[in-house]
Amino acid sequence: MKILVLNAGSSSQKSSLYYIPNDERSQEVITLLWSGSIDFSQQQGVAKLKVESNGVVWEDKQETEDRLVAMEALFKMLCEGDTAVLESWQEIDYIGHRVVHGGSEYQQPTWVTEEVKSAIAQLISLAPNHNPSNLQGIEMMETLLPNAGQVAVFDTAFHSRIPTTSAIYPLPYQWYEEGIRRYGFHGISHEYCAQKTAQLLDQPLSNLKLVTCHLGNGASLAAVKNGHSIDTTMGFTPLEGLMMGTRCGSIDPGIIIHLLREKGLSADEIDQTLNKESGLKGLSGLSGDMRTVTEAMGENERAQLAFDTYIHHLCRQIGAMVASLQGLDVLVFTAGVGENSAIVRQAACERLGYLGVEIDPEKNQNSPQNEDIATPDSSVRVFVLHTNEDRAIAQTVWQLAQANSY
């Protein structure tokens, strides 16, 4: 079975092609055949294309802003040149899509129908940076691969079983009934990392209390107990929770009222500021990229302030997750910052020493991947994992197809 996974973002599009044997006994045998990406962020009106396959890296540029045109150019490399792995696109059996917001209704991976597409569209206001691109990706695949079954895998699904006390906000109960609640995000990554940790420890996931730290440009934590998310930092939208690259995370809601009343800002202006001009970028004045901030810390006081504030918010919220779990067995770092920033891991773990967290400095500095960097005496295991949402989506699609649900 050949499964294409599409992860469509606001300024980029990533795709991966996997092969999984149809034999149920071979569901763990997942082979990545081909991966491709489209980046519109580097130059206006230009799509940067990149493909990796057969040990070959192919790159090109297309003068277009049309995603469908760029996708067609990228997909040609599935069947042409040194990166070819197919004779025809029609060999693709299924397509799996990462969809950020599924609301209250969609708590499981779901075959894409007109009803599902309508629901994704209706949730755009709650995930304006993601759901439009996710929906556009689905519609492009309907044009390019009309015979392939499509599956929506929702980032909110893993958090759908959190207790009501974690999900509800202390607002009028009617609002909760109308869907204003904590949904949580990055669920595909949090679930994958929890399962991977249990596999590496050779322990049942049900025995472990984990805090998984998905630290990228967007960032969130999940408290995982008995294999389920019981609390998380992102909420009604992906804006709540940790300080992030360009997002503010949790702030006093009275600030919004003040900005509306006293500063005369519009809702759109506030939305732009909180989502695009805050976080690391807002405090440092430099960038939302952790690498740029840490490189500037020695000579730039605001860069140092941004980093220190980031670590403060991270550790404070890890403490909240530990309180929900009533203990901690494993701390997991993943995603761009979590996997690659040794200084973030070091600073956070030093502050968490009161929990018995102790890491090996040499292991931490040595680009660990899928590795426990805690010392033997540490009361808490500390893993650095390479998250693989695409692989998790492919496996989910395979399982759904095997169940003959389409």
Question: How is this structure best described in words?
Answer:
This protein is an alpha/beta fold and 406 residues long. It has two domains: 153 residues, ATPase, nucleotide binding domain (Nucleotidyltransferase, domain 5, 2-Layer Sandwich), CATH 3.30.420; 182 residues, ATPase, nucleotide binding domain (Nucleotidyltransferase, domain 5), CATH 3.30.420.40. Helices cover 36% and strands 20% of the residues. It is built from 15 helices and 14 strands. The protein has an eight-stranded mixed sheet with strand order 5-4-3-2-1-6-8-7, sandwiched between helices. A six-stranded mixed sheet has the order 11-10-9-12-14-13, with helices on both faces. Strand 1 and strand 2 form a beta hairpin. The radius of gyration is 21 Å and the shape is globular. It starts with a strand and ends with a helix. The mean pLDDT is 91.
